[in-house]
Structure prediction request, 363 residues.
Amino acid sequence: MTKRAFNFNAGPAALPLEVLQQAQEQFVNYHGAGMSIMEMSHRSKEYEQVNNDAQSLLRRLFHIPDNYHVLFLQGGASTQFAMLPMNLLQPGRPGAYVMTGSWAKKALKEAQLIGETAIAATSEGDSFTRIPSLSDIEVPAEAAYLHITSNETIEGTQYGAYPNVADHATLIADMSSDILSRPVDIKQFGMIYAGAQKNLGPSGVTLVIIREDLAASSPKHLPAMLRYDTHVKANSLYNTPPSFSVYMVKLMLEWIEARGGVSQVEQYNRDKTNLIYDAIDQSGGFYRGVAQAASRSTMNITFRIHDAELEKQFILQSEAQGFVGLKGHRDVGGLRASTYNSVPLESCRALAEFMKEFQKNNG
Ligand SMILES: *Cc1c(COP(=O)(O)O)cnc(C)c1O
Prediction:
């Protein structure tokens, strides 16, 4: 068997070997069709089945109620930053944003191009090392929605609990970097969106889970591709979909189901990240976690070594030993291990061992 890297890439990210092998088996000849899924019409029975299976698997695994639509769109989460305000903002009804880091900032910036916005809370004063406390979040009474970023991929912070605003505001979440990593009470949200390439599959497809009433009210002037109702009516087949990506998402969802579902995945993720956070916390200060303890992410572990030269050495030596993707995001520097759903426990154990060894040799 080919040797696989200890892959801690932030996105696109690791996929389960079993899923890749299954795709490989079906690559040239999908279920006896004499062609790959990529070469087929998206109007074919075979592809329609893939599209429907991916949706129903997701509904089952994530316990999505019947009054929500599941959409597979293109353009990444970054397109949702604009599409959301285009569809939901109205004059006198601002979009409220919780500022938790780099991705929240990008979401706000796009909304500012479209309509009125408000900042509901921010942790910028603490360099985004924490999620603001839920009691500090203030939603203007007339707000069209409250937008949160459930996991800040670059800073390595994550909401422990979500703001409970369902009785007076529509909660919208960018879950691009922690979708399906833990159970979520969908009813708390008006809409959830996520690019697939971190926790759900390859790049090229963006998941949108949207409550029926929100998808029904797009302004008349919006172009067809940028309206939620277009994609609802067409069952995500309005135009040519990213068929291979949706197919890979389906395989990934089957893999999650075979492992026992989202709660099991959550436990597994905790076991994985505990190994690495323990290596940080038990290093006597050699390693320092970037996020404050209560806001630590189970998906992106950000940490530093007191000396920038040692950080460089850490990356070089880790690469020599088969680790990939441990360099922090270029905007913040430092080190980061992304431990999404598909990253095996063995990779995390190997990293924790490497960290201890590196400390022994350089501490
Ligand atoms: C990666 C990421 C995005 C951007 O996703 P694209 O699909 O590349 O547009 C947005 N939000 C969060 C939280 C992310 O991690």
Q: What stands out?
A: Residues 11, 76-78, 103, 149, 153, 174, 176-177, 195 surround pyridoxal-5'-phosphate (CB under 6 Å).
